Amino acid sequence: MTIPTSSDPRDKQTMFAAAPTAAASFSVPHAVQTALAPNEIVILLLRPSILYVPLSSLGTLAASVVIATTLAYAATLNWCPWNESSAIAVGIIVASVRLAWAWLDWVTHVFVLTDRRVIARRGILRTALYEAPLVRIQNTIVVQSLRERIFGLGTIGFATAGRGTFDAFWESVSAPFTVHGKVLETIQRYGRK
């Protein structure tokens, strides 16, 4: 399945592999396009699952319920200057702000697998662009937290030669074992020359 991303000459060779998780419903972001070589082929272009937004916010969402409940209870006391509606509004505002921040974080996450390298981009205020040539990828791992496993998600980690830890992660990817298989296939095909 070939999908041109733009009329930019650097993108003429860009292709997307058909994968159950890699719906090419968004184009390669400019920050990533500028890092690609003119004839580099994009094999996978992913974002975390949209479930990343609520799942990454669970702690704050739970805290906003506790805050709203505590404030609502305090509103029943005679000395309290606010009412129950105000308490609930505070909880909703806290939850909404956290979900909005998580959505912005989700939008900035982009995971790219090309015929030459693995790329992970993320960040709202401070962005980070990780890239490693396929020939340097020594280890990969699929990790599923309980909440990711419940929703069929997982995180894929990459370690390069000479490092004792994993350098980058593709977080909350749908069908992680299918994506991991595509990554391994690409490393075998293009990275072991």
Task: Describe it.
By secondary structure, the protein is of the alpha+beta class. It has six helices and seven strands. The protein has helices spanning 30-33, 52-56, 58-75, 84-108, 146-150, 176-191, and strands spanning 42-46, 110-114, 117-122, 128-133, 137-143, 153-160, 168-174. It is elongated.
| Head-to-tail CA distance between termini | 25 Å
- Based on secondary structure, the structural category is alpha+beta
What is the level-2 CATH architecture name of the largest domain? Roll
Number of strands: 7
Flag low-confidence runs.
1-24
In total, how many domains does the architecture comprise? 2
What's the mean pLDDT score?
A: 84
Order of helices and strands: HEHHHEEEEHEEH
Features:
193 residues, four-stranded antiparallel sheet, alpha+beta, 7 strands, disordered N terminus, PH-domain like, three-stranded antiparallel sheet, 23% strand, 2 domains, elongated
Produce a short descriptive summary.
The chain is α+β, with helices and mostly antiparallel strands and 193 residues long. The chain has helices at residues 30-33, 52-56, 58-75, 84-108, 146-150, 176-191, and strands at residues 42-46, 110-114, 117-122, 128-133, 137-143, 153-160, 168-174.
